[in-house]
Design brief:
- It contains 15 helices and 14 strands.
- By secondary structure, it is an alpha/beta fold.
- The strands form 3 sheets. The protein has a 6-stranded parallel β-sheet, with helices on both faces. Strands 11-10-9-12-13-14 form a 6-stranded parallel β-sheet, with helices on both faces. A two-stranded antiparallel ribbon has the order 5-6.
């Protein structure tokens, strides 16, 4: 199969699970003998642009005609069987879908977050879940609240893109790959076409390192941001420390907007180590040495890559009991779920998962079995190729019937 992957890479200064997923899928497909090429832009390149070009970036978020022309020409020249779209913000835009239509190549899109119904894609505002824009074709609340980076001005291009391209997304993509059932449920309730939304969990490569003993620390691994529950974790850990601790330190690995706060909080403590940003090998080693991995996100995670990475290493998880975590973690079997946003509940689950080493080992073994059954590369490859074939067959059937999404009444003539 010949696949062209379309992706706007996130800035490299902070960890990106989405970049990781894209790279892993490309490597998986190539390793299975498929021809895979990449059409990409990099957010890192914005820093090197001229001032005039930088100013124009927000204007092209809703629509980038140059990208449409460039991608359409490449598609006509190379004729891939399918285009797999990931992130298009901020340098690609939904114009990539028009390019696919121009060249007559079917498109599949992985939905890594909630940008189809929420301009910043988080379904969160001021540290709490928010669905004000869900179901609305004009997301004015997001602009009013400045939901992207706390700025009304920065939110406008995203809101305009969501409103202007809503029908183009919904009619121009043959298969939307949701990364959890929880995410799919939200999107169906928002009015997206249920028949094109399927669940395809992200896979995780089998790690080189697996846990072989009881573990030596608890681990938080990810972006240091409010939505990831970092402040909640610090509060819960302080509660545990005040009552004597749990016998192992907390290791925090990552970077993000709360880095200075985390650094100051961890300074001078024996029970906390902030280690900065780990590379892939360091992440695997840190996970394999963990008593448990902690994922206390306050937003409704669409997936939770670190949870599955822990399961692959045979390590149980303490995670927030909402969003995708509910379907990834079987409470009391492969890990423990805490009440979302409640520090006392998180502290209680951390204490529980560290208190009984034998039970902890059993949960770790169950987590590994869950990984093998649902999140291994073999499972990921099978589901990915299956959806590609379905998309290709769907477009072929339309071509034979002389039909289009647009004349079925769900298209966009833009």
């Amino acid at each position: 199969m010949h696949v062209l992957v379309v992706h706007n890479r996130y800035a490299s200064a902070q960890p990106s699970g989405e970049n990781k997923v894209v790279d892993q899928e490309v490597a998986l497909l190539r390793g299975a003998g498929h021809r895979v090429e990449v059409f990409e832009r990099r957010s890192d390149d914005i820093a090197t642009m001229s001032l005039l070009t930088k100013v124009a970036v927000p204007l092209r978020v809703p629509w980038n005609p140059a990208v449409r022309a460039e991608l359409a020409a490449r598609l006509r020249s190379e004729r891939p069987d399918v285009v797999h779209v990931h992130n298009v913000f901020p340098l690609l835009s939904p114009a990539v879908l028009a390019a696919c239509a121009d060249a007559g190549v079917p498109a599949v899109a992985t939905l890594h977050n909630y940008t189809q119904v929420c301009p910043p894609g988080t379904l969160q505002r001021d540290g709490r879940p928010c669905t004000e824009c869900v179901g609305s074709s004009v997301p004015l609340p997001a602009v009013r609240h400045g939901c992207y980076r706390g700025s009304r001005l920065a939110t406008v291009p995203l809101a305009v893109s969501l409103s202007a391209n809503r029908r183009r997304w919904w009619s121009g993509v043959e298969r939307f790959l949701c990364i959890s059932a929880a995410q799919r449920d939200v999107l169906v309730r928002a009015g997206m076409p249920a028949e094109r939304l399927v669940v395809k969990h992200n896979f995780v490569p089998d790690p080189d390192a697996r846990r072989s003993d009881a573990g030596e620390h608890l681990l938080y691994l990810g972006r240091l941001a409010e939505a990831k529950g970092v402040r909640l974790l610090m509060t819960a850990w302080d509660e545990l420390a005040a009552s004597g601790g749990v016998g192992v330190p907390l290791v925090i690995a990552g970077t993000g907007p709360l880095e200075a706060e985390v650094t100051a909080w961890a300074a001078g403590r024996d029970d906390v180590r902030y280690v900065g940003l780990y590379d892939t090998a360091e992440c695997q080693k840190a996970i394999a040495r963990s008593v448990a991995v902690v994922a206390p996100s306050t937003w409704l995670e669409a997936f939770g890559l670190v949870v599955v990475e822990a399961m692959a290493a045979g390590v149980p998880v303490v995670a927030a009991g909402h969003g995708a975590f509910v379907e990834l973690v079987e409470d009391g079997v492969t890990g423990l779920l805490h009440r979302p946003g409640e520090a006392a509940s998180l502290a209680s689950r951390i204490r529980r998962i560290t208190a009984d080493p034998d039970r902890n080992q059993e949960m770790g073994q169950a987590a590994r079995r869950r990984y093998e059954q649902g999140f291994s590369p073999a499972v990921g490859l099978e589901r990915l190729v299956e959806e590609y074939r379905t998309a290709i067959a769907g477009r072929s059937a339309l071509a034979r019937g002389g039909d289009t999404h647009a004349n079925r009444g769900d298209g966009d003539s833009r």
